[in-house]
Write a structure and sequence with these properties.
By secondary structure, this protein is α+β, with helices and mostly antiparallel strands. Among the domains are: 80-129, no CATH class; 140-218, no CATH class; 295-343 and 358-508, Transferase(Phosphotransferase), domain 1, CATH 1.10.510. It contains 13 helices and nine strands. The strands form three sheets. It has a five-stranded antiparallel sheet with strand order 1-2-3-5-4, sandwiched between helices. A two-stranded antiparallel sheet has the order 6-7. Helix 11 (428-445) packs across helix 12. The protein is elongated and about 125 Å long. The structure holds adenosine-5'-triphosphate and manganese (II) ion (MN). Adenosine-5'-triphosphate binds at residues 255-256, 258-261, 263, 281, 283, 340, 352, 354-356, 361, 364, 404, 415-416.
Length: 511
């Protein structure tokens, strides 16, 4: 027998011990063998053979124990060493599985709780030790230890220092702060032997991680602003939930990425109290703040949302856009204007019926090459819809153009009404004038001879009788009307009667 292990040496039973013991050899006993000893040795050989039938786990870490002068006389210590080795291997394997399981996914699941080794003693603790020993060039007095004692098994005799030892643990916790949170001043390194209790350490660790996540979130915002990234994990989760709830069967690709929203196609599922159409459109309002800011004016002065606007944070305001579109669509639906039917609103996601077929959205009027007959029909339909919108729905579209009118089923459908306002909105009439100009220009250019000019259209839609010789004067008159309305609101503290009260057709207010 040599010092390190048992090498090919024949014993009385004739078996050969080929394995090298990793922890050295017990002191050779020279006493003559008794029968019981022979028996137990046989048993040992048998056990050893049985054991070697199991595959041996590859040792990824450096062997814990090297050198010749290791005391192997204590069974307890041997057992602890083995257990330690086993735990480390187990955790290494767990890490591998965790890595494989999570892949590149942004959302990862931690296997931390299944680890054998106490969280403070993770497998790269050896690295940690090196780290923190490097950072402290003897900050302690000469009587302070410069290295941590080996955990668990390193002590001599019965004097075992475990990793749970309060002092060791406290010092280690303090040192570890430097590893993951150098920004936290733990007050160490100036001769103070500071020991952080596990409780304090955990609290600090938690705090640092949530801080890191928070700052990561802030940086991510930039990423979210690109069209493709408009759907952040939270939004995706909301979408998954809708599919999970069966409202939608699935959500297909993206139909459009606009300025304020991303629109998806979804296959309809079912709901308890509502029939979900076979094809749906999901309008996801962008959660970025840059673009929607330009639209403040639409919602800020809309008396319906005025109360709430001042108190809300930007995220909630975005939800209000979705809510606004839902209300406006509902009013239009009620008046019988062809438009998407609202299915459900979930935060900033509006699910509505899909205008189109087989996942192909209906073309915009801009893209359509209509026959002159159809174009003429489209014009009269749009004129009628604008009147209905104003007079029955008490709304001004405020972004009406050939881009927000779809051609489907031989007629025009109005979409995109999140910015629509009531005519008494401080800029409502200006918005209407802009709409009229877009419509009038488009149909006149398309060769519809019946198409009215912008002024006539404005009066025909609003029922007002604004007369002016120039555009500037016309707009000045419009602004005057708006001003009068503002004054009325200020004086009476409530919504003014609609403009058309002085002579125009009656307005059915459905609120
Ligand atoms: P943009 O900035 O381009 O105006 P937006 O953010 O205002 O976009 P919408 O105009 O409502 O959003 O929708 C964008 C596009 O998505 C539309 O032009 C249309 O092609 C498609 N779309 C929206 N809603 C529907 C729907 N219900 N059915 C079919 N297609 C739709
Ligand atoms: Mn649009």
């Amino acid at each position: 027998m040599d010092q390190i292990g048992i090498t090919a040496e024949e014993n009385e039973t004739g078996s050969v011990w080929k394995t090298k013991s990793p922890w050295g050899a017990p002191k050779a006993v020279v006493t003559p063998c008794s029968l019981t000893e022979v028996m137990s040795e046989q048993l040992a050989v048998q056990l050893d053979e049985e054991l070697s039938a199991f595959p041996i786990c590859p040792d990824v870490n450096e062997p814990l124990i090297t050198g010749d002068n290791i005391d192997t006389s204590s069974d307890l210590k041997l057992a602890q060493m083995l257990q330690m080795e086993f735990d480390r291997e187990f955790d290494t394997q767990l890490r591998r599985e965790e890595k494989k399981f999570n892949g590149d996914s942004k959302v990862s699941i931690s296997f931390e709780n299944y680890r054998m080794v106490h969280p403070y003693d993770d497998t790269d603790s050896s690295e940690d030790e090196v780290d923190w020993q490097d950072t402290r060039h003897d900050p302690y007095g000469p009587d302070k230890p410069t290295t941590n004692p080996r955990k668990g098994f390193a002590g001599k005799g019965k004097n075992i220092t475990t990793k749970h030892d309060e002092v060791v643990c406290g010092r280690k916790n303090t040192a570890r702060m430097e590893n993951f949170a150098p920004e936290v001043q733990v007050g160490d390194g100036i001769g103070m032997d500071l020991k952080l209790s596990n409780q304090v350490f955990n609290a600090l660790k938690q705090h640092c991680y949530s801080e890191q996540r928070r700052s990561a979130r802030l940086h991510e915002k930039k990423e979210h602003s690109t069209a493709e990234q408009a759907v952040d994990p939270k939004t995706r989760l909301l979408m998954y939930k809708m599919v999970n709830a069966g409202i939608l069967e699935n959500i297909h690709g993206c139909i459009s990425t606009g300025k304020e929203s991303v629109v998806f196609h979804g296959k309809g599922g079912s709901m308890e109290d509502k029939t979900v159409p076979e094809e749906c459109a999901l309008k996801v309002y962008k959660t970025t703040l840059n673009e929607f800011k330009n639209r403040d004016k639409y919602i800020k002065d809309d008396y319906r949302f005025k109360e709430r606007f001042s108190k809300l944070n930007p995220r909630k305001i975005i939800r209000m856009w979705a809510e606004k579109e839902m209300h406006n669509l509902a009013r239009m639906q009620k008046a019988g204007i062809p438009c998407p039917e609202v299915i459900i609103l979930k935060k900033h996601i509006l699910v509505m019926s899909f205008i189109g077929e087989n996942q192909v959205p209906a073309p915009k009027l801009k893209e359509m090459r209509l026959s002159s007959e159809d174009m003429k029909g489209a014009y009269f339909q749009v004129l009628h819809m604008m009147q209905q919108l104003y007079q029955e729905c008490n709304l001004v579209h405020a972004d009406l153009s050939e881009y927000n009118m779809l051609w489907h089923d031989g007629k025009v459908w109005l979409i995109d009404v999140s910015q629509s306002v009531e005519p008494t909105h401080p800029h409502g009439l200006e918005f209407l004038f802009r709409d009229c100009r877009n419509v009038s220009t488009f149909f006149q250019k398309a060769g519809v001879s019946e198409a009215m000019n912008v002024y006539d259209l404005f009066n025909a839609v609003s029922g007002l009788e604004v007369k002016a010789d120039s555009e500037a004067e016309f707009i000045a008159q419009i602004e005057l009307l708006e001003k009068m309305n503002e004054d009325h609101v200020q004086k009476h503290g409530k919504k003014a009667p609609s403009y058309s009260d002085d002579g125009g057709p009656p307005i059915i207010n459905d609120d």
